[in-house]
Amino acid sequence: MSQPIVTRFAPSPTGYLHIGGARTALFNWLYARGRGGKFLLRIEDTDRTRSTPEATEAILKGLAWLGLDHDGEAVSQFARADRHAEVARAMLESGHAYKCFATQEEIQAFREEARAEKRSTLFHSPWRDADPAGHPDMPFVIRLKAPRDGVTVIRDRVQGNVTFRNDQLDDMVLLRSDGTPVYMLAVVVDDHDMGVTHVMRGDDHLNNAARQQLVYEAMGWDVPIWAHIPLIHGPDGKKLSKRHGALGVEEYQAMGYPAAGMRNYLARLGWSHGDDEFFTDEQAKSWFDLDGIGRAPARFDFKKLENICGQHIAASDDAALLQELRAFLAATGQPSLPETKIPLFEKAMPVLKERAKTLPELLEKAAFITSDRPIRPDEKAAKALDAASRGILKELTPHLQNASWSRDDLEQVLNQFAEQRETKFGKLAGPLRAALAGRSVTPSVFDMMLVLGRDETLARLSDAAGA
């Protein structure tokens, strides 16, 4: 029986969950969930000066909104410092590491001299092969005894085989002189102890992989399958930054993008399944594989994001979409939907979700539901309610009182009324939109009338006609 797949997402809690991190989490989640494996979360909080509980909370909230559930409790890297130190000492015992007593001043002097002589500044410690009997009684670091010749090959499922010359790899510090472990060691120990089989992360970590692989080999541990994903660039081809709108995940939530649309779009950033653009979570879990990840950086495109989100809103289950709308209002600190309006939303949802690309757009289309009498038209809609238009509405109201309130009957009544006045229905639409919704851009007049019902429709028309 093959080993179960275990992936992980390991963010540093020094800020919000950015879009690149969210995509990394998604890829790991899809790969594990599609294969009956585990998706684990580790908070890499070893940098105590920059790590904050607020950032950890923002990361957890971002993952929760995206629907990326992890197995078990989140692991704190800082809390495992004793275990990391234990591994460094084990490597010391086995001869794969050594005590280095070189001071910062000595290392700095070596590098300056090397620069002046135009040779490698890679520090070669004089303590690497020193006799332990001659060790001084002073602070020391524990360094990895890296191989000096040959090559280290990273067999990467995305980048292919990447070769590093060992004479270019340093004897990295594993344990500082104060006994605290370094991040590069902690990552390897945590991944091994958590049973991680696949390390999927940004390709900015590719150089780290060479040094980390040496720790796996020194400990005799299985090396995980590496998959280093290209970074995300802006539309101009440059590394994604704040000027491109490289925002935290919570800001995309606040802009009203639905989580399913966000997942779909992020999955397509750097990975493809034929020409498929729009797909469900179940399809993504079933299709996602490492072979579909490209080597070139992906480009973030807001238009494509909106297009995918619009398709997901249109395809959403009405009740689920209403829940997402309520969560959006809560997350953005807006008033919740009054319970009295919920039945109208449920009735209108098939109409509202057509062609809405974001939740604010959907809410804007629902203005005819959220508004209460008397309807106050906005500036543009008010122009459609001049004296002549109000007269038309007044004349129209009795014709609607006896309508059966089906779409066909309403269309017939309004079209006949337009014919009698020797005009087109389009001429009636503007005043009707203004009267029913207070807007000039709304769902169809018939859809609004059917959702509002006879009594509310006639009352709004009477208000507008008498204004």
What does this structure look like?
Helix 8 (259-267) crosses helix 10 (302-315) and helix 12 packs across helix 19 (445-466). The chain is mostly helical. It contains 19 helices and 12 strands. The protein is 47% helix and 10% strand. The longest helix has 22 residues, at 445-466. The strands form 5 sheets. Strands 1-2-3 form a 3-stranded parallel sheet. It has a 3-stranded antiparallel sheet with strand order 4-5-8. Among the domains are: 80-185, Glutamyl-tRNA Synthetase, Domain 3 (Glutamyl-tRNA Synthetase, domain 3, Alpha-Beta Complex), CATH 3.90.800.10; 316-365; 379-466, Arc Repressor Mutant, subunit A (Orthogonal Bundle), CATH 1.10.10.
The radius of gyration is 31 Å
What is the CATH topology assignment of the domain at 80-185? Glutamyl-tRNA Synthetase, domain 3
> What does the overall shape look like?
elongated
The major pleated sheet works out as: 3 strands, parallel
Give the SSE map.
Elements: E1 6-9, H1 19-33, E2 38-43, H2 53-66, E3 75-76, H3 81-94, E4 97-100, H4 104-116, E5 141-144, E6 151-156, E7 160-165, E8 173-175, H5 183-193, E9 198-202, H6 206-219, E10 225-229, E11 232-233, H7 249-254, H8 259-267, H9 281-287, E12 298-299, H10 302-315, H11 318-331, H12 342-352, H13 359-365, H14 367-370, H15 379-382, H16 387-401, H17 407-420, H18 425-437, H19 445-466
Parallel strand pairs: 1-2, 2-3, 9-10, 11-12
Antiparallel strand pairs: 4-5, 5-8, 6-7
Helix pairs in contact: 3-5, 5-6, 8-10, 11-12, 12-19, 16-19, 18-19
EC number: 6.1.1.17
Catalytic activity: tRNA(Glu) + L-glutamate + ATP = L-glutamyl-tRNA(Glu) + AMP + diphosphate
Domain Glutamyl/glutaminyl-tRNA synthetase class Ib catalytic: 5-306
